[in-house]
Amino acid sequence: MGQDEFSTFECDKNAALQYLRIGNEAEPLVQVDSFLKGLDALKAYAVSNNQFSAQDSFYPGIGMQVPDAYVISLVRLLGKPIRDFFEQDVRKIRSAAARFSIVTTPASDLNLLQRVPHFDAPSRYSLATIHYLCDVPDSGTKLYRHRQTGFEFIDNDRINHYMRSVKAQFSDPAHHPSGYICGSSPEYEEIASFEAVYNRLVMYRGSSLHSGNIGPEYNFDPSPATGRLTITTFIEFSP
């Protein structure tokens, strides 16, 4: 099965969309359950091709390219919330990229920034999605507030202040978190949680502080057939 077998995707007839405002800063988030029709075929593509490899230096796991039709269809199917809820213009998309992803890096091998909530870009003109191709409810995604600053998102106006604060808080390696963050900690407060349910998609601004919920029982299974298989998408817009 190759990329050219996927010309387009459609919403499942049972798709259920929720518009949410998260935290004190009321950041927008969209959750769609039973999102995509024919998701089984897309997962079968990942399983049969299985050309996963290490991703960039930040993502704690492996990835593989997603058929181009997926990104095009995602923007088309979610055009209304992108425009009306996130207030972005799809005609101003500067870049859009998606990958199959599986978390495979053991907690002991993480760097500091992989042990705390992160943001994908310090920009109010970016959106991120995670689409679950697995049923691992206790390993979904959580959003956070940084307690010291009160920040729930990091943009260009906040990034220097935020990074100085984090650097000071974790200046002593002995006080670094022992692994993946899985809920509230002395430095961060959990403000929302979304379980990893098959064919659930969550879309949020790329500036939101978030983290995968990778707990101590997570097995780091690298198989796309049985592991924590997701599609992660990042979309950048021009102002």
Please describe the topology of this protein.
Blueprint: E1 16-22, E2 27-33, H1 39-49, E3 53-54, E4 61-65, H2 68-77, H3 79-84, E5 93-103, E6 126-132, E7 136-146, H4 159-169, E8 188-196, E9 201-205, E10 210-212, E11 230-237
Antiparallel strand pairs: 1-2, 2-9, 3-4, 4-5, 5-11, 6-9, 6-11, 7-8, 7-10
Task: Describe, in plain words, how this protein is organized in 3D.
The chain has 239 residues and is an alpha+beta fold. It has one domain: Sandwich (Jelly Rolls). It contains 4 helices and 11 strands. It has helices at residues 39-49, 68-77, 79-84, 159-169, and strands spanning 16-22, 27-33, 53-54, 61-65, 93-103, 126-132, 136-146, 188-196, 201-205, 210-212, 230-237. The protein has an 8-stranded antiparallel beta sheet, with helices on one face. The protein has a 3-stranded antiparallel beta sheet with strand order 8-7-10, with no helix packed on it. The longest helix is centred in the N-terminal third of the chain and has 11 residues, at 39-49.
